[in-house]
Amino acid sequence: MSPLDLFSYSFIWQAVLGGLLIAVFTSLIGTFLVLKRLSLMGDSLSHVALSGVAIGFLTKTSPLFIALPVVILSALGIIKLTKNEKIYADSALGIISALGIALGLIIAAVAGGFNVDLMGFLFGSILTISKAEILLATLLALASGALVFYYYNELVAMTFDENFAKTAGINTDKINTILIVFSAACIVIALKAVGIMLVSALIIVPPSAALQIAKSFKQTLLYSCLFSCASIILGIYFSFLLNLPSGAVIILINLLILFIILGIKYAFKKGKTA
Amino acid sequence: MNLIEAKNISHAYRGQQVLSKVSFNLKEGSWTALIGPNGSGKTTLIKLLLGLLPLQSGKLNFWQKEYFKELGYLEQKITPPKLMPMTAFEVVKMGLLSTKKSPKIFNKEDIKTALKMMRTTNCFQYRNKLFTELSGGQQQRVLLARTLVNNPKLIILDEPTTALDSTSRESFFELLLKLNKEQKTTILLITHDIAEIGKYATDFMVLDKELIFSGSKEDFCSSEAVANYFGSYTQHIMDHLHSEESCPFPAHEHHHKDKEAK
After folding, report:
1. Burial class for B228, CB neighbours closer than 10 Å (0-12, 13-18, 19+)
2. Chain A to chain B, count of Cβ pairs less than 8 Å apart?
3. Predicted ipTM?
4. Is B81 close to A37, i.e. CB distance below 8 A?
5. Model pTM above 0.90
6. What is the spatial distance between Cα B255 and Cα B8, in angstroms, rounded to a whole number?
7. What are the tens digits of pLDDT across the range B136-182?
8. CATH number of A11-273
9. DSSP 8-class letter at B64
10. Across the interface, do A159 and B146 touch by the CB < 8 Å criterion?
11. Domain residue limits, chain A
């Protein structure tokens, strides 16, 4: 079989389409999370997603559709915990993360332990993405695109200097809440691609690579999307070709892009100083 | 007309009082210097005026409901994300957001206005450079352009010249003076440098958790309350101000009398 023959399978196209949609909205939302120093939000919420997925298995309903409201409610809980300054933001993330894992493990045990399906969510299985999940990814990609387009200047101003944005009459609380809710949704659907263990990397790594070379905010969003999409296509291709887990390969390709960019930047800097 | 009327403003952080029953009026066209020692509640008061902190007690009246459309604010220093990919021009453009309706999209006129303001504040030459790659002084000029670009009726500045050298500081204040004189822009400025601001301010407010003094420069210069409050610390500053003929400082005389007595 030639390497290109794998694209003759319809499930591969389905995986590529679903993966690209996931790549677009994780990189759009991820750019703002990374710059606002909320990267760890992805990590915590992905752990909460474990509880949602486990509830899905326990109640024999679609895990992603159960995880979605659970993770969104947890995201709102984090906002509430940090808003009154009774608990530091990173502590609140740690608390929610621990709660998510503990509950997830207990519910998974009650639901019959770690079966193959649960493992699929832990480590991702983009090749098994269903049509309903693609539809959900499409809706979220469109909604996150609309969010970024509609609030673009407000989001940029808030990311740069939140105090200034408030004094300019921008409702920063409302926009931050919308951003966090979208981040939660983004994490849930991205579970399908790379799994609970690696989902935060899909949110953090492409924007981090883009930020190394972009000269404007729009460029950052564009490069972030491009790197993420490239990692999805190459990840699916190589994982299928080499019979490796797709989620891990996608993340490794993302990291490879980041390290190559950092290496080139370092070499240029070294060349200039020499 | 008063742009701001503040009545009995009090504020506490975790039970510790930082402002106590502060009342004042901010006159249109005035340049008010807000002075006081560290921890006296100056920044807290400014944050309350700007809506960055919730009002715990007292009352604040502004000249109009959507006052933020005609408001400019400049902090001593901001700390944007280290890798923030925004050019100086993009930063200045953000100053026009308060004038836009949602979705807030900039047009050609906005671009012209932003570039014109960058020329006025002498930062046009680095308009395409990333803001985070500029020096402290250059950043402050860009932020001043952002503050002024919406042609504000009131400008609030919190120790804005800390990062500037003496030449830049003077041109900074001269620009503000021009706005104050020609466009009747009202200025409220937190500063520690009484000697410098004495050349420009028309009004003074002295704050130390409670309002020690609020009034015109002339009243400030002759106020016993001011003289009593500042004591020997201000004698040095008074020496500078004394050279201004318009400000015959009684405290300065006290200072010399004290010296003579010793």
Report:
1. exposed
2. 83
3. 0.81
4. yes
5. no
6. 34
7. 888 988 999 999 999 999 999 998 887 778 888 888 888 899 889 98
8. 1.10.3470.10
9. S
10. no
11. 11-273
